[in-house]
Amino acid sequence: MISVNDQQLELYLSLFRGRVDVYARRWEKDSQFVFKYGYETGPSRDPALKNIFVQETETSPNQYMYTKGGCHCGAIKFKTAKDPFWVGACYCIDCRKISGSPYTVFAGYDKKDIDISGTPKNYASSEKVIRSFCEICGSPFAYIDTTSPDRIFIPVGVFDDPSSFKIEKHIWVSQKLPWVSIHDDLPQED
Hints:
Layout: E1 2-3, H1 6-16, E2 22-29, E3 32-39, E4 67-70, E5 77-80, E6 86-90, H2 93-99, E7 104-110, E8 115-117, E9 121-126, E10 129-133, E11 140-145, E12 151-155, E13 169-171, E14 188-189
Parallel strand pairs: 6-13, 13-14
Antiparallel strand pairs: 1-3, 2-3, 4-5, 5-8, 6-7, 7-12, 9-10, 10-11
């Protein structure tokens, strides 16, 4: 396991591209991004490189791996190497109006675990809720409950690959539109 930056990664991949099938996984360890490399063996592989790479056998403790995303225009970007502490679907009227959809699925993180570039515009949608969005393209970006200001809830739709998120809970189901059906046995809350 070695620690590299993005430029070093591109250099390593360009040097070995075509000689071995190189792959990398990225996760945070001690506040540094760490890459684990491996290669696949086969008749066309250069045996001299076998000692350089180690076949990856462990999996990251992070189910979501290195995740990133941003607004539609790219003015706001974010990344994290942590799993969310909560993933839930909210059916409240405010989330519907802000997102323009029947409900919003959020991933909750500790603010310290999210690296944000760009400056989202904030909007107090109620006495205890601050929502943020991109003032250029209008993409919703985050929800912050002022009673827990160290936490941030990001709509999963702004992640580059939201496919690995799994809803854990449905909230504000009393405000759910009548034609929206919930087809699971996950906890529900009004």
